[in-house]
Specification:
Helix content is 73%, strand content 2%. By secondary structure, it is mainly α. 52% of the residues are buried.
Length: 523
């Protein structure tokens, strides 16, 4: 196999790391629901406080581990190569999945989640770089965006697997352990894939690089070899972590690229995506749509739509360019967040009234929304009242959401759906795409590890703060905050983000030279 077919194959096999990234971050929500409800399970016997603590630890440990290993991946991809780092990620995914599948205690499950998180960190940094360095300029955008599509596909498959095993005895073991299968397939297939030609040239392995390029190109191999070699020669002498950091900070084009790259990853998270992905079922319930079970299946349907919307990015990334696609995407995100916020605000303003009863603790709250915000439940009957538990309710019991007019609920659902479509089209893939291509070869591993680590750090911050934000700012206030941050991002990237499509990786340095503000050509 030669040319584009070979590039497609290596992109797909390496992209399985993206699928595992999505699956392992998406599956834990359903798995933990089963674990928490098991009477004789690994969390049995704990107090409510300790159970909540372990729940948070098991979920958050993966994100924390991913952030750390995304930073370490820069050293590994630079010293061992892109291929060996991806192979290492496959082994780690298999090990973590097996540990989780056989875990006999909460401590061992925690270890498994940490191990899987390290695999996610390695893959999320190394795979986009590998694809970007192997792809020709006219396919680079499509293939790196496809990587993000596999991440989303992994999240969607996770919802289906959770639904399939939710009623199976200890079904969580299957949910968490099945990730070992695609990880093993990736390891076997990737053994036969080539190393990145640009990494090989950076290590002086000229003939190996030429052989790889001849296998994945149909023309201009020697021209590309010369361009890469010239870049390597002009940037020789940069070695050691301290020298790398120093040069990144003092070399104007690289410093500018790193600031923009990290800003893309920061605002990808600050615009609220993982709030709506990790808590989509919760948001649907907040909107007043049905039971916990129905909210899960509605959120699964929304996840599928999110996956389909990723193909918009694949189709448009080269036609519109990275910059325009990002700005259009952010515009849709801003409008959608306003719609969600308005829906929640109208629902709160028209929240069912609760009859006050100062004699009981929860009875002081005079509306359903205030009731639920303070961890009480709403009992709807002829004399609706806010109470602590269902045993005191003689009517319909609402512990998780308030009954609401359909127009308000569906305003929120439409806003949530349009948000995910708009985000999937551009804001989801473009930060990964741009970061994989804007750094010079000597800084590519280090800079990508920094930007990827930044993404995971802010992922963790946003994920653990959402429920607290809804209590501090109200539900609609949290989404208005995300809207404000997304608007700030639109203005920032309009001013500073240049267009990178159609450029070779060796042309990026000149693109990021000059003024920080992007100047438009006059028509």
């Amino acid at each position: 196999m030669k040319g584009k077919i070979a590039v497609y194959l290596l992109s797909f096999l390496s992209g399985i790391g993206g699928f595992l990234f999505g699956y392992d971050t998406g599956v834990i929500s359903g798995a933990m629901r089963v674990i928490v409800e098991e009477k004789d399970g690994i969390l049995a016997g704990l107090s409510d406080t300790d159970r909540d603590l372990w729940h948070e630890l098991i979920v958050a440990s993966t994100v924390g581990s991913a952030a750390l290993f995304a930073l370490l991946a820069g050293i590994l991809t630079q010293t061992l190569g892109r291929k060996l780092t991806i192979l290492a990620a496959s082994v780690v995914f298999v090990a973590g999945s097996v540990i989780m599948g056989i875990a006999s205690s909460k401590e061992l499950l925690l270890v498994g989640r940490i191990v899987v998180g390290s695999g996610i960190g390695l893959a999320s940094m190394s795979v986009p770089v590998y694809i970007s360095e192997a792809a020709p300029p006219d396919l680079r955008g499509v293939l790196t965006v496809s990587y993000n599509t596999l991440v989303v596909f992994g999240q969607f498959v996770a919802t289906l697997v959770c639904g399939a095993f939710v009623n199976v005895d200890q079904g969580w073991r299957y949910m968490l352990g099945l990730a070992a299968v695609p990880a093993g397939l990736q390891f076997i297939g990737f053994i036969f894939m080539p190393e990145s030609p640009r990494w090989l040239l950076s290590k002086g392995k000229v003939e190996q690089a030429r052989t790889v390029l001849r296998g994945i190109r149909t023309e201009d191999v020697e021209t590309e070899m010369k361009d890469i070699q010239d870049t390597v020669n002009s940037n020789s002498g940069t070695s050691g972590t301290f020298n790398m950091i120093k040069r990144c900070m003092t070399h104007q084009p690289t410093r500018r690229a790193l600031i923009i790259g990290c800003s893309l990853q920061v605002f990808q998270q600050l615009s609220g995506i993982n709030t709506l992905m990790y808590y989509s079922a919760t948001v649907v319930q907040m909107a007043g749509i049905g039971s916990a079970e129905s909210s899960i299946w509605i959120s699964a349907g929304i996840s599928f739509l999110y996956f389909l919307a990723c193909f918009i990015g694949i189709f448009l990334v080269e036609k519109l360019g990275r910059r325009n696609l990002l700005l259009f995407s952010l515009g849709g995100v801003i409008i959608s967040l306003i719609l969600i916020g308005v829906g929640f605000q109208l629902a709160d303003l028209n929240s069912p009234v609760s009859n006050p009863n100062p004699d009981i603790g929860c009875g002081v709250y005079t509306s359903c929304s205030k009731c639920l915000e303070n961890k009480c439940g709403f009992c709807q009957s002829d004399m609706s009242i806010c109470i602590y538990n269902v045993s005191s309710c003689a009517g319909d019991w609402f512990p998780d959401y308030c009954p609401s007019k359909p127009v308000y609920s569906w305003t929120i659902i439409v806003g949530l759906t349009s948000y995910l479509v708009a985000f999937a089209a551009g804001m989801a893939p473009i930060p990964w795409t741009v970061n994989s291509e804007i750094y010079p070869l000597w800084a590519r591993s280090f800079a990508n590890s920094v930007s990827t680590g930044t993404n995971w750090i802010f992922n963790l911050i946003i994920s653990i703060s959402f429920l607290s934000l809804t209590r501090l700012l109200t539900r609609y206030g949290a989404f208005y905050l995300y809207c404000g941050l997304a608007s700030l991002a639109w203005l920032l990237f309009y001013l500073v983000l240049p267009e990178t499509s159609g450029k070779s990786l060796e042309e990026m340095e000149s693109l990021f030279s000059g003024n920080l503000i992007v100047r438009r050509k006059k028509k």
